[in-house]
Amino acid sequence: MRESSLARHRPSVWWGAMIICGTVVGAGMFTLPVVMAGAWYGWSLLILMVSWVCMLLTGLLFVQASQHYPLGAGFDTITRDLLGRGWAAVNGLSILFVLGILTYAYISASGPVYQSSLNRAGLHLSVADAKIMLTLCVAAVVWLGTKGVSRLMTFCVLAKILLLVTLFGGLLTQLDIATLANSGASGQAYWPYTLAVLPFCLASFGYHGNISGLIGYYAGDKKQVNRALMLGTFMSLVIYLFWLTGTMGNLPRASFPAIIDAGGDIEALMAALRRYLHVSALALLMDVFSHFAVICSFLGVTAGLFDFIADRLQMADTRLGRLKTACLTFLPALCASLWFPNGFIAAIGFAGLFATLWAVIVPALLARKAQQKFPEATTHAGRQNVAIVVVMLFGGLNVLAWTLSWLGWLPVFRG
User: Fold this and answer.
1) So which residues are the signal peptide here (predicted)?
2) Right CATH number for 17-406 from 2.60.40.10, 3.40.50.300, 1.20.1740.10, 3.30.70.2470?
């Protein structure tokens, strides 16, 4: 009777999936059509789906390794025990860099968006004021804990999905198959640009900082956590497919070099889309959609960073302890955004490189080490080993792609 009562009160998979989907699908999605312009639709979808499978595997591998540790053990604790202090230090720096730089990127991207909307509503604020106000609001929600984040994330994701259906339903009614297939241009190559897309696709499925919080949320129930990861990442993939189809089916491939030259950020892409839309209401929907996309990623990323800092510094789970953790989570990124406001695209690119270490390579190493340290508790070792090999190959390919791109050895799409 007691077990059935606990089962009834166990949190639904839906709440965890909302956190994952809300974290994954955010402001970074606006970079995808821009960085995928060279590879275009077919090749980009292939890379995106491969990235989804591999990034889901890395999350499942981390969950498997975490099963040998008590609730509350975070990424840093598990890495230090299985791989040693050296790996823990390198991994910790990578996590802090990725989550910190993404926090900076979302503050930088959200400030102008929300400032413009508030000004139109009659509340005249500077961009800096808008950044500070939004950061304080998000910090308050994260301070409340996983339950508060999941509830607000659910509202934002549901609103985002509703807007997505409405907005991209409108975009799809205007979709031009010839534009999507780029059939008007003959003799153009696509595959040379595919490798450069890979790090951005990896960064587009970054949710690993939230796994420890989910494990605690589901009281260590591995099946519930795995289902939340699978549902949340799959929902994200579907949203990305809608987004790429809607944008690439309305914006000709030849229009993207101008978007890239204009900075390739949210405003540049939105401005280009408005010129091709025949229904003025769609422009308003795009503005509203961008608000929810930014706030979802902002919440998810900062919740993950909050959990990592709390675990790394062993901060007390009290109101004062959580306040200290919140200050460490938000203040550095906010200050950096106020001093260097235009680093959104560069931040997303660097996040893809460093995320390869802690979100791809380290989970694979943790799963392998856990097999060796806890052989009696290891199940399905054969399937795990296959997943580990696939993930390591994927991680190595991402490092190669980013390095070649950084050295200027990969072709850049210029039309």
Assistant:
1) none
2) 1.20.1740.10
